[in-house]
């Protein structure tokens, strides 16, 4: 559109193009800053979760040690319990992954439908 404005409006058209470019640059800068902030917040949350996992693992190890030392449960019983917990966690993770993939496919399908609808309107 730049050359059309320039031919039809001369310097005014050129100024309008410059303003449009400045607005695009501002929006891009704001978007970049927002994404950077969001990435930093996510990194901080990941660090918190990793620390929590370490604390929970240490607590579990301590509890298992106490249970074994006091002869409340045998090593075999403790192993079965831990195996069952691991299987349950893996199942939950697989379900969550499948649900996330389904949601992503639904979003992509909806986006494609919107794009197709916009293309149809233009014709």
Molecular structure report:
The structure is a single chain. By secondary structure, this protein is mainly α. It has a domain at 77-123. 93% of the residues lie in helices and 0% in strands. It is built from 3 helices and no strands. The protein has helices spanning 2-9, 11-69, 75-122. Helix 1 (2-9) runs antiparallel to helix 2. The longest helix is centred in the first third of the chain and has 59 residues, at 11-69. It is elongated. It starts with a helix and ends with a helix.
Keywords:
elongated; 123 residues; mainly alpha
Separate helix tally: 3
- The run of helices and strands is HHH
Strand content: under 5%
Low-confidence stretches: none
Percent helix, as a range, is over 70%
Radius of gyration: 29 Å
Indicate the structural class. Answer: mainly alpha
Q: Report how far the terminal alpha carbons are from each other.
A: 20 Å
User: Kindly state the mean pLDDT as a whole number?
Assistant: 87
- Total beta strands: 0
Largest sheet: none
Choose one word for the global shape: elongated
